[in-house]
Amino acid sequence: HLFSCLLLVAFSLGSIQAQTAPAKTLDVYPGTAPGALGHSVADRPTIDVYLPASNPTRTAVLVIPGGSYHDVMATYEGAAPAQWLVQRGVAAFVLHYRVAPYRYPAPINDAQRAMRLLRSRAAEFGFAPDHLGAWGFSAGGHITSVLATLFDSGSPASPDPIEHISDRPDFVILAYPVISMKPGITHENSLHNLLGPMPDPARVALLSTEDHVTPMSPPAFLFTTDDDDVVPSQNSMLYVAACQRARVPVEFHMFEHGHHGVGL
Fold first, then answer.
1. What CA–CA distance (Å, rounded) separates 161 from 177?
2. Which of 9, 91, 218, 257 is the most buried (most CB within 10 A)?
3. Can you give the pLDDT of all 264 residues of the chain as single tens digits?
4. Can you tell me the distance from the alpha carbon of 107 to that of 163, in angstroms, rounded to the nearest whole number?
């Protein structure tokens, strides 16, 4: 089963000793990113490509690091899990998305575009287009939960053929994720970096993904820790409850102890 093959990924106690460079780096957009504020590396979303020697399940994962929508923790929440996946025969792609001063919708758009782009090149990278999941950490978990709830099947009218492709993940892994944007539940820094100091209530509602899980949302695996003092574990529990209501396959592990950002 596609999903069960990856269940142990999120709570492996192993560490990646050898870090190798990605096989290549892709631009998420063919030219300047929509809404770009400049021409630096920070204005240019990219995907690092990690390919296994053999991929018997023809599976791939878009890895989305956290960083409170202010940074991208591309090592221990990006390269390390990517190498973990590659060592187990799964293709991995690490997303470097735009963060503050960029706000909504830039980081979400970057992830949605990345899913479409990877699916369009599935044959090139040796995976099946219906075996593409997403694994997000912390704020990257929020992006992943948006992919799992606010996806679409593509825009047939677009002149760009990549935009014709669905951005829905086939499964998601949410590691100590931000889920809600609601006061008292959310991670305040992530909220303000994404939506500004005075968030529009309509956007808070839209991006509180616990309220948007449907039976069409992909299977989900979540883990968090009970004493996470940065992103309350309630975020994960709300998403799990939403999956249960919608009858979406879900597995959840809440460990008693562990600081926020435990990575692998």
1. 32
2. 91
3. 444 444 444 334 344 444 478 989 999 999 999 999 999 999 999 999 999 999 999 999 999 999 999 999 999 999 999 999 999 999 999 999 999 999 999 999 999 999 999 999 999 999 999 999 999 999 999 999 999 999 999 999 999 999 999 999 999 999 999 999 999 999 999 999 999 999 999 999 999 999 999 999 999 999 999 999 999 999 999 999 999 999 999 999 999 999 998 998
4. 17
- Give the list of residues 6+ apart from residue 8 with CB closer than 8 angstroms, or none: none
Q: What is d(CA 164, CA 171) in angstroms, rounded to the nearest whole number?
A: 20
Task: Give the separation between CA 230 and CA 68, rounded to whole angstroms.
Answer: 10
Preceding peptide of 105 cis, ω within 30°:
yes
Helix, strand, coil tally for the chain in percent (to 5) = 35, 15, 50
Our CA dihedral for 25, 29, 34, 36, rounded to 10 degrees, sits at: 30
Tokens 């309630």 found at: 234
As a whole number of angstroms, the distance between CA 211 and CA 205 comes to 8
The phi, psi pair for 218, rounded to 5°, reads -75, 160
Q: DSSP for 62-128?
A: EEE--STTT---TIIIIIHHHHHHHHTT-EEEEEE---TT--TTHHHHHHHHHHHHHHHTHHHHT--
What is the distance between the alpha carbons of residues 104 and 65, in angstroms, rounded to a whole number?
Answer: 17
The SS3 assignment for 155 reads coil
